[in-house]
Write a structure and sequence with these properties.
Elements: H1 17-22, H2 32-40, H3 55-66, H4 70-80, E1 96-97, H5 108-126, E2 130-135, H6 162-177, E3 183-187, H7 192-201, E4 212-216, E5 219-221, E6 223-224, E7 231-233, E8 236-237, E9 239-241, H8 246-253, H9 256-263, E10 267-272, H10 283-291, E11 296-302, E12 312-316, E13 319-323, H11 330-334, E14 346-355, H12 356-365, E15 372-376, E16 380-381, E17 387-388, E18 395-399, E19 412-416, H13 419-422, H14 435-452, E20 468-471, H15 479-485, E21 495-498
Parallel strand pairs: 2-3, 2-10, 3-4, 11-19, 20-21
Antiparallel strand pairs: 1-12, 5-9, 6-18, 7-8, 10-14, 11-14, 12-13, 15-18, 16-17
Length: about 500
């Protein structure tokens, strides 16, 4: 790591602490302590181009520096760095066992349980006890877009954005249950303004603007193998969102848990923005959660194949865990039950229901989620001021994961759902989980609804709908509502767009 410089170094080199402080304008003197913290942490290189910066650029850099807890970052580097020589402790898997799962109903008894759960969940919705938390801190860079991922078009006919697709589901549920559902959207510094402006420009898609809250998750600096902060311009430190687990910290820091208490919210429905098929505030899921007095409940789907890159839900020493695919041993990955099915088959799809009292207890105890380090290839500005695009991992990002909360759960629940009905994330430009596949999956979902309602919908050899179907949530929020409205004599001619008036 960089040493404190004892003297001024010319343009293109580091500058010492005294020189930087002497050059601070009167309105920038408040950053004096932050500058000192950076030098004390041996991060003086971030001032390498100080003399070349304009006043706004200096202000931006100082603002970034003030947001960084240098001691915290140093400790993370020393404990988590995958480049350091000391051995990294691994979590033992010898006591990993499959979870107890409420299955997709296939018989009369299971359907009866699901119906009972639905009634319980609907009552909770009518009483206004549920809020929605959408994690939307990412941009669509991997999809070739510089916009927030939630702004990308996904529906097969009208091209609605993910945000609109989700918003219309919330609006329809509010209408059906005569209640207002608070919607909390976690953004990042890089996409907060664009996300907020997008909602304003679309009049919040009919929702009450006062009950749609945007809040920013914490950002952490990206560092190199020596623990030095990386920069992508002479005035900008590369920052990265602190992971989906940052939602828990952000709920506390933004006093959202206090607001939820005032609203009478008892449970938070959590999901990630890129899953276009999420069944928003699913009453059956809510009912199971409430009936079992769970602190947190998770939805899961069966794995497509042993090597699928998804986290696996299981018990370790009797407590619920999610084991990342990269941490699952080969033996466990291919382990089978007596009937030949995968032993560890419950894939995590990041749809949770979390009890607000439980979250408050965690925040009050101060026992927050741990951070994990991930090696990445990150373009950066080298000492000569040139942008370098690395060919191998050169950087480390720190993230916390929402599922680490399970370690503090005494009573958790896992509910299995059908992948084709509830899980289709948008993550890649091509191949699996791409714009093509999510539109296909939306199309196929609506096709199944119609077929189950008695309408003939042709499919190709792969089982995909021939044609295009879109059913707005305002017209029907689910298959049951569609069946109460659709004329079974309808002839599908390859194009059907059912929207509310």
């Amino acid at each position: 790591m960089h040493k404190l410089s004892s003297e001024k170094i010319g343009t293109g080199g580091n500058l010492n602490l005294e020189f930087i402080i002497k050059t601070l304008d009167t309105d920038l003197l408040s950053y004096k302590k932050s500058v000192s913290n950076a030098f004390e942490a041996s991060q003086s290189h971030i001032f390498r181009w100080w003399n070349e910066l304009s006043k706004p650029e200096k202000t931006h850099l100082l603002h970034q520096i003030a947001s960084i807890d240098f001691v915290f970052i140093r400790n993370l580097f020393q404990k988590k760095s995958p480049w350091r020589a000391q051995p990294v402790a691994s979590v033992t898997r010898q006591h990993l066992t499959p979870p107890n799962v409420i299955p997709v109903p296939t018989n009369i008894q299971e359907r009866s349980f699901a119906l009972e759960a639905r009634h319980i969940g609907e009552e909770s919705l009518r009483n206004g006890e549920i809020a929605v938390l959408t994690v939307a801190g990412g941009d669509g860079t991997r999809l070739g877009s510089d916009r927030p991922k939630g702004m990308l078009s996904v529906t097969p006919i009208s091209g609605k954005s993910i945000f609109q697709f989700h918003a219309e589901k919330i609006y329809a549920i509010q209408r059906n249950f005569g209640v207002t559902i608070p919607w909390y959207i976690m953004t990042s510094e890089t996409n907060h303004t664009a996300t907020r402006d997008f909602f304003h420009s679309h009049n919040f898609f009919g929702l009450d603007p006062k009950r749609v809250c945007f809040f920013i998750q914490r950002m952490l600096p990206v560092i190199d193998a020596q623990g030095n902060l990386l920069m992508n311009s002479k005035s900008n430190i590369i920052m990265s969102p602190n992971g989906h687990g940052g939602a828990i910290t952000a709920l506390k820091e933004n006093n959202i848990l206090g607001n939820l208490r005032e609203y009478g919210i008892k449970n938070i429905f959590y999901h990630q923005v890129d899953n276009v098929l999420v069944k928003m505030v699913d009453p059956v899921f809510i009912g199971y959660h409430l009936k079992n007095h769970a602190e947190i409940s998770l939805k899961s789907v069966k794995k497509l194949r042993p090597e699928e890159m998804v986290g696996v839900i299981g018990y370790i020493n009797g407590k619920l865990h999610i084991v990342e695919y990269s941490e699952l041993s080969r033996e466990d990955m291919y382990a089978q039950n007596g009937d030949g099915t995968l032993k560890y088959n419950a894939a995590n799809i990041a749809i949770h229901l979390m009890n607000t009292s439980f979250l408050e207890q965690i925040c009050q105890s101060g026992d927050m989620l741990p951070y994990h380090a991930a090696q990445k290839k990150v373009p950066y500005l080298n000492a000569d001021g040139k942008m370098i695009t690395p060919g191998e991992n050169n950087a480390m990002k720190f993230e916390c994961f929402i599922f680490d909360i399970l370690k503090q759960v005494k009573n958790g629940l896992v509910v299995e759902v059908l992948r084709e009905d509830e899980f289709s994330p948008l993550k890649n430009m091509e191949g699996d989980n791409s714009p093509v596949t999510v539109k296909r999956d939306i199309n196929n979902l609506f096709g199944r609804w119609l077929r189950n309602a008695g309408v003939s919908v042709p499919v190709d050899e792969q089982g995909n709908v021939k044609g295009f179907i879109e059913i707005g949530a305002g017209y029907a929020i689910d298959e049951e509502e569609l069946q109460s409205k659709i004329d079974t004599r309808l002839l599908f001619d390859g194009h059907l767009n059912l929207q509310s008036p």
